[in-house]
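Dear Dr. H.,

I hope your travels went smoothly. While you were away I took the liberty of generating a structure for the chain from your last submission, since the lab meeting agenda had it listed for discussion. I wanted you to have the full record in hand beforehand rather than looking at slides cold. The sequence, exactly as received, is reproduced here:
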Amino acid sequence: MVDNNSRTRLFSSEEFQQENIRLVLRAVYEALKERGYNPITQIVGYLVTNDPAYISSYKGARTLIQTIDRDDLLKELVRSYLK
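The corresponding predicted structure, in token form, is as follows:
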């Protein structure tokens, strides 16, 4: 029997990955902003060069962004932009 009022939702692997990318990107953005950097410029620099030095280590942002494959991050950004 299925409870239609249940709050449990099944996510596909792709949906889970997309949400993870969004959460990581938001966390990195906020950490860069808190440190006084221009987050957009820093993230673009990282994406273009693949140089993690563009991302501050503040709040683990550098380590966090490196958990996401750069190609997957770019794909998600394009997908989101085109929606």
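Two observations you may find useful: The mean pLDDT is 90. Helices lie at 13-34, 39-49, 61-65, 70-82.

With kind regards,
E. W.
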